[in-house]
Specification:
The complex is a heterodimer. By secondary structure, chain A is of the alpha/beta class. Chain A has ten helices and six strands. In chain A, strands 1, 2, 3, 4, 5 and 6 form a six-stranded mixed sheet that branches. Chain B is of the alpha+beta class. Chain B is built from 24 helices and 20 strands. The chains are: A alpha/beta, B alpha+beta. Strand 3 of chain A pairs antiparallel with strand 1 of chain B.
Chain lengths: 241, 625
């Protein structure tokens, strides 16, 4: 998926225009409805953008080989993360669980035996995604897995803009990997992982690797990033990918 | 509530008023929370605006202000705010600002009202504007450098309350009550221009007047304190703090030349700096027995770490730690005198070494001695002073000040002698110096009287200041001692590390850094006839004599400060990570900045040693290590 071109206003249609086109092309009613709900204008200040933090736990890193096992979503804005509207699901993966992934997210075979297929919860997922800009930490996972998972179930993939808190950290720390020479002098690399990034903003430690807690953690991190490095007036076009 | 939000619920369940709330009720609260992040310095609640939330601090710290802009409270993790406005259905009463980067959980007004109606302990908690809660909130760790950068005048909010020193006891008490002050300044009104003559405090009224049942008509001049310890208007708050620490006084008249401008009370500083070393010191003096002292001695390390985190300089930390050590000693002496009865003859308890220099840190042993009145008769008096010395020494050991391995303690008969013997000791050390004997008596040239007849110690300081500068041979041998320990740098500015023993591959910042520096500064100071004990103070005196060029003096000061602060940070880090603090640093644990500057600082030490060798012709002789 070539999402980055959306960032370049001279060569690609902006996200609202793209949503219009996609709404016409979509065959699945779910996706049509999602695109028709529209997307905020690129010059909307971030303080006025309805957002939703999204986090997936998966059986591995390759969206073509691995599956989603759980999903956490929490709607929020720059001034409030609504815990009451937060949702978390365990879903049954198409592919078997690996022992290593069990160790990471703690979801076991017993948990997923009773779990629904992703298809059964898509209505609710889109209920939360609709009309909001998704916020993730490391966009390849969330966007890649959502795209593949929908291709399997609806026969067509999905495109949507994201704010990527990891990309923002990467942008803020371009020289995060010290050279061999700097390493000799004791310079430590700057980690842009979720927990380490949060520490830089004085955010608390959460016992990690639960999709909902990670989604909340990502939403908090975005609020902190905006207050430290941007401003509530920053237009969304400067940030989305 | 989604079960995955358990982390959030568990956090709240640790703090009142949520700690006693039924689980399902707390789940409902969590299900209604909104989370918001505030950057340090940003406004959370503005005075007079509408507020519809109760705020819970998940991380960070928040300052609440009064309408006047005065600080009302500082609160942090696990505490709530915003309840006063919600209760009164009013707009914001206490505006709130994020002191640090802060994450808050906001509980909506409807949930708050529901909790207030359905949960008694919640209602009790939010309703009580408990003073003690506020105090504990203020004493929480806070990041603030105001002590270092603010002038004492900031603490003065009123004209000084004065009275002529001819006033009677009852009248003095009435003036203090009417004006709501805990200290009254007493003026000598004989001349046209009244001068500050004395001070009387609440405590004096209690201990000197009421317990003695003095008649209300007693002239106040009979019980006032006359030898006043004051501070000048240009001083920083931390200097006022050090002055109080050093002298154990709770009120300082603020002087602009001869004019008195106000009084600074301990409480004024505690407001700035709760749980500080000063707070600890006043706590030490309140303890009723040595087990109480032992208990609060655990706070010493916290106080140390806190000062380090507040970027206090080494002088401030060293003085504060020495002030704390001094207070433990003083209180133990008072308790000992209570237990054993009043001393049969006057005596002075003397601190030696780092405590006398105001350069104490947390890893320290006790070095002390007793000067007895010349009327001392060993058979009659010594059993008392031995018992007292032992009481203090054992008490100090209980409080974490280990026994001196060299036996330089008042429990050792050699260091528990009448003033005339002490004068003989010092005269002999200075006029007939012997290398070996001097090596062991080095420490006596940092001395300070801390209890009893402190004049005795002043006598010894005068004697040393007079004689030392005239004895070239003494200075030469002392200089030679000061060259015994060399800084740990070799060719190409590499660190020279200890090759064997427990501390392999490290170097000792005290033995190789601060100690050689304070040794060589002591030699110059004694050569200048200085009575100062603190190394920074000694450098000032040396500067006035032009013995050392200004540039070199500045370098020495910076080198001492830098090595000391690296040593201090190293100890604070160890304490924070639960290790036993020591003085041994591994170069790889230092940042490149610290490594490079340490090498520069050690180079300064090395150059200063070369100068010392040349100046006192101390080149011949041993150079151990």
């Amino acid at each position: 998926m070539s999402s980055n071109s959306a960032n370049d206003p001279t060569t690609a249609p902006s996200w609202p225009e793209r949503f219009q086109i996609l709404a016409q092309e979509a065959r699945s009613p779910l996706l049509k409805d999602f695109y028709e709900a529209g997307c905020v204008a690129p010059d909307t200040p971030i303080s006025e953008v309805p957002m939703v933090a999204l986090d997936l736990e998966t059986t591995g890193l390759d969206s073509n080989q691995h599956s989603i096992v759980s999903m956490g979503l929490v709607p929020f804005s720059l001034t409030g993360i609504q815990l009451g509207a937060a949702r978390h699901w365990v879903v049954r993966p198409k592919l078997p669980l690996h022992q290593t992934s069990i160790e990471i997210h703690g979801i076991t075979h017993a948990d997923i035996e009773k779990a629904p297929d992703l298809e059964e919860i898509l209505d609710q997922v889109f209920g939360l995604l609709k009309g909001r800009v998704a916020v993730v930490h490391y966009r390849s996972i969330e966007r890649g897995f959502m795209d593949v998972a929908l291709k399997w179930r609806l026969g067509e993939g999905i495109q949507f803009p994201v704010l990527d808190t990891m990309a923002i950290e990467a942008h803020l720390h371009p020289d995060r990997q010290p050279s061999q020479w700097q390493r000799l002098l004791g310079k430590q690399p700057v980690s842009i992982r979720l927990g380490d990034s949060r520490t830089r903003y004085g955010l608390p430690h959460y016992a990690g690797h639960n999709a909902l807690i990670d989604a909340i953690a990502t939403a908090e991190l975005l609020q902190a990033q905006i207050h430290h490095h941007f401003s509530p007036q920053t237009p969304i076009r400067d940030l989305w990918l | 509530m989604q079960a995955e939000l358990i982390d959030i619920r568990n956090h709240m369940a640790h703090y009142p008023p949520f700690d006693e709330m039924p689980e399902d009720l707390l789940d409902q609260v969590v299900g209604n929370i909104e989370v918001e992040y505030f950057r340090a310095g940003s406004t959370i609640l503005e005075f007079g605006t509408a507020n519809h939330w109760l705020y819970y601090i998940r991380s960070g710290a928040v300052e609440l202000f009064r309408r006047s802009g005065e600080l009302y409270s500082r609160i942090s993790e696990g505490e709530i705010f915003g309840q006063f406005g919600l209760l009164m259905k009013q707009n914001v009463r206490f505006p709130a600002t994020a002191l640090e980067d802060t994450l808050v959980y906001r509980i909506p007004e409807e949930t708050f009202q529901y909790l207030f109606k359905s949960d008694d302990s919640f209602a009790d908690y939010v309703e009580v504007e408990d003073k003690s809660r506020l105090r504990s909130a203020l004493s929480r760790r806070e990041k603030s450098n105001e002590l270092m950068t603010s002038r004492v005048t900031r603490l003065i909010s009123r004209e000084p309350v004065c009275a002529p020193c001819t006033v009677r006891l009852q009248e003095a008490a009435r003036i203090m009550t009417d004006n709501g002050v805990s200290a009254l300044l007493l003026m000598d009104s004989d001349s046209d221009h009244p001068r500050l003559k004395g001070i009387i405090t609440d405590r004096d009224l209690r201990t000197r007047a009421v317990t003695e049942a003095l008649p209300s008509e007693t002239p106040i001049s009979e019980i006032m304190t006359e030898d006043l310890i004051t501070i000048r208007t240009s001083a920083f708050i931390f200097e006022a703090m050090l002055t109080m620490l050093h002298n154990n006084v709770h009120h300082l008249p603020l002087m602009d030349k001869d004019e008195v401008r106000g009084v600074i009370a301990l409480a004024d500083i505690v407001k700035y700096e709760s749980q500080s070393s000063l707070y600890l010191v006043s706590n030490i003096h309140r303890q009723k027995d040595s087990s109480g002292l032992k208990k609060i001695s655990r706070d010493v390390r916290d106080s140390f770490v806190r000062m380090v985190n507040e970027d206090a300089n080494s002088h401030m930390i060293g003085s504060a730690m020495a002030g704390i050590g001094r207070s433990f000693t003083q209180r133990l002496l008072e308790l000992g005198e209570e237990k054993l009865g009043p001393p049969p003859i006057p005596y002075c308890f003397m601190a030696l070494g780092s405590m006398a220099r105001d350069e104490q840190l947390v890893v320290t042993d006790q070095d002390n001695a007793m000067i007895l009145d010349d009327s001392f008769v060993p058979e009659e008096h010594d059993s008392y002073f031995l018992a007292l010395a032992k009481f203090v020494s054992d008490g100090l050991a209980e409080c974490g000040y280990t026994y001196c391995t060299g036996e330089i303690m008042a429990t050792n008969q050699k260091w528990r002698q009448p003033l005339k013997v002490w004068k003989d000791y010092f005269t002999d050390w200075i006029e007939n110096p012997k290398a070996e004997a001097l090596l062991n008596s080095n420490i006596f040239f940092d001395l300070d009287g801390i209890h009893g007849k402190t004049d005795f110690a002043e006598d010894l300081k005068s004697l040393v200041a007079e004689k030392a500068s005239n004895s070239q041979r003494f200075l030469t041998l002392l200089a030679r001692n000061a060259l015994n320990r060399t800084p740990p740098i070799g060719f190409f500015r590499n660190f020279v590390l200890e090759e064997d023993g427990q501390h392999r591959k490290s170097f000792n910042l005290k033995r190789r850094g601060t100690a050689p520096l304070s040794d060589l500064i002591r030699v110059h100071a004694l050569a200048c006839g200085s009575r100062a004990q603190n190394s920074f103070e000694r450098l000032k005196v040396i500067g006035k004599t032009k013995l050392i060029l200004d540039d070199d003096l500045g370098n020495l000061r910076d080198a001492l400060e830098f090595i000391a602060i690296v040593r201090i940070r190293h100890q604070a880090l160890a304490i924070e990570s639960g290790h036993e603090p020591d003085n041994n640093v591994h170069p790889e644990d230092l940042s490149p900045f610290e490594r490079s500057h340490l090498k520069d600082a050690f180079q300064v030490v090395s150059n200063a040693q070369k100068f010392l060798r040349f100046r006192y012709n101390a080149g011949v002789g041993r150079n151990v290590q």
